[in-house]
Structures are given as structure tokens and as C-alpha cells.
User: Fold this.
Amino acid sequence: MPGEPDALSATWRLVRDSLDQDLPPNHRVWLAYSRPVTLHGNTAIIAVRDDFTRTQLETKLRPRLEDALSRALGESVRLAVTVEPSLALDGPDDGDDGTPSPEEGESRTSGTSGGVQPLGDDDEPHRSGLAVGPSGTDAFALSSAPPGQPVRADTEPPRLNPKYLFDTFVIGSSNRFAHAAAVAVSEAPGKAYNPLLIYGDSGLGKTHLLHAIGHYVRNLYANARIRYVSSEEFTNDFINSIRDDKAPTFQRRYRDVDVLLVDDIQFLENKERTQEEFFHTFNALHNANKQIVISSDRPPKRLETLEDRLRNRFEWGLITDIQPPDLETRIAILRKKAAQERLTAPPEVLEFIASKIQTNIRELEGALIRVTAFASLNRQAVDLALAEIVLKDLIPTGGEPEITAGQIMAQTSSYFGLSMDDLCGSSRSRVLVTARQIAMYLCRELTDLSLPKIGQQFGGRDHTTVMHADRKIRQLMAERRSVYNQVTELTNRIKQQARSS
Ligand SMILES: Nc1ncnc2c1ncn2[C@@H]1O[C@H](COP(=O)(O)OP(=O)(O)OP(=O)(O)O)[C@@H](O)[C@H]1O
Assistant:
């Protein structure tokens, strides 16, 4: 029976009908807007219309559904719930012919399946991010709760950025292999390639792929325990665990997982004790067939001060790189970004931006945000003339000097008449919060520093604070002229200072 969607469709209807009798009306509604997707191994994948319904099914109905499905199918079945927003538009499934056929189901959710998306024509908002592995493939051995028991009760949320999905990742020749490898490890964690190591320059999508793996595994295997961590956080966590005498808690946190995603491994260089701890973490996970995915800004052999034994282990699995995207891919990324953020920009403007910014996708996105924010503030149409004006300051003319977080922070504090202590301190006054957020945003835009590194510069703040600041300023730039002007003025000053120093 596994792998046969028809078996699930018929069974799901029966299960739903039988439960309907016993459920209160508000619970029945959750099931009315559900759709069987497929059986994958012994996991029944069911789509629902939104996150709320998914949570309700997972927390309130899981034991009953798993029990009923297991009885109907004659073997122990686990439930995996995925979100498919189009179900809300389709209306409730009346249980007769309203259930879409498995084929329809496959095509509606196939955006991530098989690893290849068409380039350039995928402007629609992202869908569920669900795809299934080849029919009949063994699901990996999850050390999860057996059917009928609540899951994730004792695990921390994996802290994944909801926007970094396979569905929002544009594929081109520069990243096709890395993307395919990422999909493969998600579909068969611990089995396809272990570890998977993705390397490439800053801003080319490594973090995006790591998060996409996390989301996709989560969609396929509802019980999977996933942990995303930057190597800097791993280091800090390790140091704190020694300080607080909490080594066992630390070890559990990183070893009792099914998938460990470690970003920016290069920051482990020169940290001998942390490297040793990571070595043991790696071994524990690898021996237990748990998946490890690592990103790095360089290939392992160029991580010169990383211990040999660690570098050797990275070579056990698959090493793949991401290169800067070609022009077509850059245009496709901008198109997707514009659709996702509901930014209107004609094709020639997207092509212009893509032709000017060639090596860093973060900068590419930043340029699009600036152009559309400028147009919206001035109530002007987004056209080529406007894009040229806005990008004039942004685009390097010749070799651009390196900008440091220190320069950005010094310029920002003097611009707002604050001290560096103010900028790094904990005051929540509005002016200070905005100044701090602008400085963080500029660090993100003008330097290659990772989120945790930026957080550290601002008095040891968490990387999620930096992520929030980045989002907030992007939004404010489009809403408030003053913020747009401040950011533009500051960018100019910082670049000027860097050129003259
Ligand atoms: N192929 C892609 N399709 C769509 N968006 C992309 C793609 N590659 C990168 N991006 C976007 O570019 C931005 C930068 O990517 P990301 O943070 O993943 O880069 P990175 O390689 O991890 O950089 P760093 O090493 O500096 O952390 C993100 O907003 C990401 O969503």
C-alpha cells in the first residue's frame, strides 16, 4: 500500500466520515478543508488550507487520525500535515467527487519535486513546499514518537526563515547541482549524501538552501527534529555550556536531532575546542545516520586552519559549490522577488538592475527594494530613468573599498547625534531603535558579515534581532520618506569615507 495515493484517497474519505460523527463542528471544519496527498513509506501526507488548521490537526486530532488510518490500512501509519493555501479557495471537500485526484494533487504540489524548476516563469507566490520522494522509498529512521503520541513536545522550534523555501529558490546553471543535492538529502535524510557541504561566496543562497532543506524535511516527516545553527552560535552555545556546567544539555541539543544544518562553518577556524566538540557531534550524528548539512564560504581544503580530521570527514559525503548567477538567473530572481514582495517593476528595470549587480544576490534584492521604495515615496512610476538615478550611488565604479561594521556604526551614531554606547545599548527610545535598526540594515547591505556577527557588534544581540531590523528598515523605507533619505544619505557618507580612507 505505501506509495499508492489512491489507497490513501479512499481511506482518507472513510476515516474522515467515521470521525465526523464524533467530532464537534469546529473540528469537522478542519477536516472538511483537507486533502489526501499521498502515502510515502508509512507516512500519510495530508494537505490543509492554513497553518492554523495544520497545528490543530497536529495537536488535537493526530492520535485519532493516526489510529483510524492505521486500522484502515492495516499497519502503523504516521500523519504528516502540509499547508496548501489553494484549499481555502477551493471550498470544503464534500467527500464525494470533490476530492481532487491524486494526479491533480501531485501537479499542484510538484513545485519542488525532482529538483528542477523552470527558469524565469515562476512568478507565482510560493506554495506548500511539499514534494514527495520516489514512490516506495524508505523514509529515514526517525527517532520520533510512535503513532498516537504527541510529537515535538520536547523539541525546540527549528528557527527557520519562512521565506527560504525551495519554492522561492530560483534555479540556474550556477546553483542547479547544489539545489538538486539539497532536495535529495531532504527526501532521504541520512541516506543520500552525508554530510552535504555547500560552499560559495557571500550572498549566493547557501543559507537559503539550508533553511529550505529544513522546511522540506519538516513537511515530509512531521516528526523530524531539525536544528539550524550558524557555527558562531554553535561556538557561543558551547562556551556557555562549559561556563554553566551544562555540557549534557548542549550535547542533547545538537546530537538528539535528525537533521543538523550548520551555516558558515569557516567561523570554526582557529577555535580548537569548539572544533573538537563539533567533531564529536559530527561523529555521533553520522554514526546514527542522521543528516548533516554544512555551508562554507570556501571548499574544505581551503579551510586551512580547520583540523584535518574534520576536513576529511566533510569529504565523506558530497561537496558542491554555488557560483554567482548568470544574467538570466539574476533576472529570474528579481522577478520572483518582486512577485513575492508585491513590488511592481517593469521587465526593462529588472533587466537593468540585473545587468548592473552581478555577484551578490543580497545586493541584487537590496537594489530592487531601493528602486521601488524611491518610486513609491515620490509617487513616480518605476522606470529606467528612475532606476538609473537610484542605482548611481549604489553601484561601485571600479574597485569598491571594503566597508567595516565599525565605520557604519560610527557614521550612523554621529549622523543621529548618538554615542556608540547608545547604539549598542538597550534603550528602546524610538529614535535609538530606528538608528540601531538602520545601522544593522546597512551592515547587512554593505558588508559580508553574517547575522550573528552583526548581532555581536551591537552589544551581543541575537541574530534574529538583526533579521528583524533588516526587514523593518526595508519596510519603513517604502513607507517613510525620512527613513529612505536617512538610509540613502548614510550609505553615501559611509561609501565616501571608505573611499577616502
Ligand atoms: N537562487 C536564489 N533564488 C532566490 N533567492 C536567492 C537565491 N540565492 C540567494 N537568494 C537570496 O539572496 C539572499 C542572500 O542569500 P543567502 O543569505 O542564502 O546567502 P549566503 O550564501 O548564505 O550568504 P552568506 O555567506 O553571506 O551568509 C537571500 O535573501 C536569498 O533568499
